[in-house]
Amino acid sequence: MHANVGEHIIVRGRHQGEKDRDGLVLETRGPDGTPPYVVRWSSDGHEALFFPESDAIIAHDEPSR
Q1: Is the dihedral of CA 42, 48, 51, 53 positive or negative?
Q2: What are phi and psi of 64, to 5 degrees?
Q3: pLDDT in tens, the chain (65 residues)
Q4: Whose CA is closest to 57, among 29, 35, 40?
């Protein structure tokens, strides 16, 4: 996984009815944008060190045309 500061991480709900979570990448701590990441979660503004698992994706911004 590779992320840049300012991109969003989306963590899919693991159980039926569980909502997805999303957060803003504030900092990358691994080499070349690899985990762990410092993330600010949109649901409550909490900032935490995050180690993504297989249920997480990076929402890379698409370039404007």
Answers
A1: negative
A2: -75, 150
A3: 999 999 999 999 888 888 999 999 999 999 999 999 999 999 999 999 999 999 999 997 654 44
A4: 35
CA distance linking residue 25 with residue 38, whole number of Å: 6
DSSP 18: P
Query: Global pTM?
Result: 0.84
By C-alpha distance, which of 37, 53, 36 is closest to 5? 37
Q: What angle do CA 16, 24, 50 make, to 5 degrees?
A: 70
Q: Which two tokens stand for residue 49?
A: 């060190």
d(CA 2, CA 34): 5
Q: Residue 56 is encoded by which pair of tokens?
A: 């997480």
